Amino acid sequence: MFELTAILKQPKQKSRIGAAKGRDSMASALAGLVPLSFLLLLVGCASRPLYPLPGKRYDGSKKPLQTFRPYNLAHRGSNGEFPEETAAAYMRAIEEGADFIEGDVLASKDGVLIMQHDVTLDDTTDIAEHKEFANRKRACNVQGTNTTGFFHFDFTLEELKSLGVKQRYPFRDQQYNRKFPIITFEEFISIALDAPRVVGIYPEIKNPAMVNQYVKWPGGKKFEDKFVETLHKYGYRGEYMSKQWLKQPAFIQSFAPTSLIYVSNLTDLPKVFLIDDITIPTQDTNQSYWEITSDKYLNFIKNYVMGIGPWKDTIVYVSENYLQLPTDLVARAHALNLQVHPYTYRNENQFLHFNFSQDPYKEYDYWINTIGVDGLFTDFTGSLHQYQEWTTPSPSGEKSATKLLDKIGSMISKYRNPQT
Amino acid sequence: MFELTVILKQPKQKSRIGAAKGRDSMASALAGLVPLSFLLLLVGCASRPLYPLPGKRYDASKKPLQTFRPYNLAHRGSNGEFPEETAAAYMRAIEEGADFIEGDVLASKDGVLIMQHDVTLDDTTDIAEHKEFANRKRTCNVQGTNTTGFFHFDFTLEELKSLGVKQRYPFRDQQYNGKFPIITFKEFISIALDAPRVVGIYPEIKNPAMVNQYVKWPGGKKFEDKFVETLHKYGYRGEYMSKQWLKQPAFIQSFAPTSLIYVSNLTDLPKVFLIDDITIPTQDTNQSYWEVTSDKYLNFIKNYVMGIGPWKDTIVYVSENYLQPPTDLVARAHALNLQVHPYTYRNENQFLHFNFSQDPYKEYDYWINTIGVDGLFTDFTGSLHQYQEWTTPSPSGEKSATKLLDKIGSMISKYRNPQT
C-alpha cells in the first residue's frame, strides 16, 4: 500500500519540521508537516478519525488569516503542479501562501464524504487500468446529459482508495500520476488544521441532488446533513469575521441554492452561491443565469449567502479572445454587500485572453485593481501569492519599524555604480 | 498604400504625444511616437533617407539607459503581441520598457538592409497569397539543409514592402496578420532614436555567408561593410559604456565569428558572440559547440567581443521538462569578464519548464538571481519589465526623498480595518 516510488519522485522540497514516522499512533505522525509521512499515513489509515495533537489546534501564536487584500483561494489545491484535490496539491498550496484551500465534496457508496470534483472517475484517476472494476461502468443523467463512465458513488471508500489520482490536463506535470490517492473530507480538514499558520477551508456541496439520489445514510440523513456534521465535528462555526470564524475560517459553496438555504438552518458559517455559465440553469431549481443574477434574486439569496462565485467570463465577456466591457454584475453584487469570488484563474496562455499579453500577473492586476473582486479561485496559488506580495505586501506587525529601516536602506543602496 | 483598416483593429493604446501626419516631409512625421502615422509613413516612404528633427536626437533630458540591472532585450520586438520585427512590435516594446530593441538584419535583392529573421519569407509573411511571386520559389542550402521556399534575397525592397508580416505562432494574436510591412534596418534605427528615452539597438549580422553569396554590392563591399556603414551613418560609435555609447547604445551580435572579427576592424561598438544549440556547428568556421565554448576559445574571442549569447537550454540542461543542475558556462564566461545574454524567454507554458510552475516570473527570477545573467532576450518585454520593476525598481533620482516618504506613508496605511 505504501507508494515508495513517491519518495523517489518527490520534488526537492525542504520540510520545515523534522520527519516523524510510525503508523501506530496517528498523533505522532501528525507531528510535522512532512509530506511523505503524512501521505503514508493517509494511505495507511484512511477513514480513521484524526485526533488533534494537544496544542496543535488553534493557539494564539499561529499567524492569522490575512483579511486586508482579496483572498487567495487554492482551487483544488495547487493543481497546476500536482494532481487535483490530493494531499500533495493542498499542502503545496499552503506552502505557496494560500488563504483558503478549496475542494469539492462528494460521497462514496458507503457514505463517506470524499474530495472529488467530477462525478465520474475517468478523467482524474487511473480507474481505466483497474480491470477488477471494469464492469462498474454505466450511464447516468448528469445535469441533463447522459454520461457514461465510472461513477464515484458506485465505489466504497476502500475501493476508491485503491485508485491513483492523475493530472487532468496533459500539458501539466504528469510525473505524479497514480502516486496519490483520493482523500476524504476529514483528511482535507486535517491538512488545513495542521498548517503552521491559519489556513481556511472552502468546501463545496457538489452535485447534491445526484449524491442524495444514489447514496443513502442511516436515520434519513442527507448529504447536506453529513457535510455540516463533519464541519461541526472539527470545530468550524461562527459568522463571517467572528472571533470563532477567524480561528478556523471556512466558506461553504454550492451551485444549488436549495442546499445553501437548507444548511443555513444548520450552521451560521458564511456561504457562497456559485453561478455557472450563462447557458446553464441551476441544477436543483432549474433557474436561468439571468434570473439568479437579477437584483431581485440577489436580494433574496443574500439572506442566506454573503457572496457569489461566478465564472469569470460571465462577468466580463470575451470576443475573439479579447475582453469586452465589464458587465454590472460585480457592481450590483457589491451594492448589496455581496462579495464576489470568480473562478478560475490559470497561468497557461490558452486560458489567458490577449489583453493580458500571455502574462498571468496582468490578469490578476485587472481583476483585483480594475474589477475589484474579493477573492480569486486560482489553479496557481504561488503566482497569485507572488503577485499580491509584490503589489500589496503583508504588513509585518511588531517588526515593521525595523522592516521600514531595512527598506529605506535598500532603496538608498540601489545607487550603485553602473555595470562595467 | 495607406492601410486604413489598421485604425479599426488597433488595440486601445493612448499615444503620449499628439499625431502628426503628412507624407511630404519625413521630418514632420517623425514629430511624435504615434504608431499610426508612423506606420503610414513607413508604408508610404520606404527607403528614403530619414533626417532627424532638430533637437530630436540625443539631448541630456532624455531618460538615460538603465545599467544597474540585467538588460531587457526585446527579442524581435514585443513579438508575443505583434508580428515579429515590425514597427508595431518595436514601438510596443519601447512602450513596455525595453532597454534594447533586437532584430535580425538581412538584405534584399537590390542590396537594402532589412529586418527579417528567417532567410525564407514563408513563415512570417503572406507571400503565399501573392500569386505574382509564385514562380520565385526555389531550393537553397541553408546551413547544410536543403530548404525550399521564397528567399528574401530574390526580392527587391519594393517587392518585399508589398508583403504583409504575420504572427509566426498560431497561439499568439493573429489579428494583425498582413497589416504591417517588413521594415528596413534604417527604419529600425529610427524607431530607437525617436523614442522618448534612450533605447539601445541590438542588431544581428544574420546568415552573412549566405547573404554575401546571393547579394552583391558595388565597389566590392560586403554585407558586413554595409551593416557598419549604416550604424556609422546614424552616429553609433564608441566602446561599451563610453559616453558616446551611452547616448546611442548598441550591441552587434552574430553567430559567425569571422563576421564579428571582421567588423572589429571597422567599429569599436561592443559585440556579442551568439552560440547555437550543442548539435549545431558555427555557420562560417564549422566549429562545434564544445570548441566555441571552451576556455581556450573564449579567451580568444574575448579580444573581439564583450559577451556571449547562448541558447538558454545549453546553459542549464533540461530533462523531462525539469531543469538539471547548471553547467559552468556562465561561471567561466564571467571569470573572463564576458557578459552572458541568453535567448529566448517566452511566457507560454509550452516553453516554461515545470520548475517554474507555468509562471514566467519564476523563470526570470531563476535566471536573474540564481544563474546571474547580464541580459535576457525575451518575447515578452512587458513581463520582464514588470518583474524587474517589482523586484529591482529604478531609483528615481532627485525625487527619491519624496518617494521614500510616499512609501513609508503607504506602508503605514496598510494597517486598515479587516474586510467586512
UniProtKB/TrEMBL annotation, chain A:
Q: Name one GO biological process term.
A: glycerol metabolic process
Q: Which keywords are on file for this protein?
A: Glycerol metabolism, Glycoprotein, Hydrolase, Signal
Q: Which GO terms describe its molecular function?
A: glycerophosphodiester phosphodiesterase activity
Broad EC category:
hydrolase
One Pfam family name is GDPD
Family matches, as InterPro entries: GP_PDE_dom (IPR030395), PLC-like_Pdiesterase_TIM-brl (IPR017946)
Q: Would I find rRNA-binding among this entry's keywords?
A: no
Gene3D superfamilies (alphabetical)? Phosphatidylinositol (PI) phosphodiesterase
PROSITE patterns under this entry?
A: GP_PDE
Q: Which domain of life is it from?
A: Eukaryota
The EC number(s) attached to this protein equal 3.1.4.46
What chemistry does it catalyse, as a reaction equation? a sn-glycero-3-phosphodiester + H2O = an alcohol + sn-glycerol 3-phosphate + H(+)
Report domain GP-PDE positions. 70-388
Q: What is stated as this protein's family in its record? A: Belongs to the glycerophosphoryl diester phosphodiesterase family.
Protein name in UniProt: glycerophosphodiester phosphodiesterase
Q: Species name for this entry?
A: Coffea arabica (Arabian coffee)
From TrEMBL, chain B:
GP-PDE domain mapped to chain residues = 70-388
Q: What is this protein called?
A: glycerophosphodiester phosphodiesterase
Q: Which InterPro entries match?
A: GP_PDE_dom (IPR030395), PLC-like_Pdiesterase_TIM-brl (IPR017946)
Q: Which GO molecular function terms does the record list?
A: glycerophosphodiester phosphodiesterase activity
| Keyword terms, alphabetized | Glycerol metabolism, Glycoprotein, Hydrolase, Signal
This entry's Enzyme Commission designation comes to: 3.1.4.46
Q: Which GO terms describe its biological process?
A: glycerol metabolic process; lipid metabolic process
Stretches of the chain forming a coiled coil according to its record: none
Per the UniProt record, the source organism is Coffea arabica (Arabian coffee)
Pfam families in the record: GDPD
User: Could you tell me which PROSITE patterns the record lists for this protein?
Assistant: GP_PDE
Gene name per UniProt:
LOC113738477
Identify its protein family: Belongs to the glycerophosphoryl diester phosphodiesterase family.
An example GO CC term for this entry is: vacuole
Q: Which Gene3D superfamilies match?
A: Phosphatidylinositol (PI) phosphodiesterase
From the UniProt record, list the reaction(s) this protein catalyses.
a sn-glycero-3-phosphodiester + H2O = an alcohol + sn-glycerol 3-phosphate + H(+)
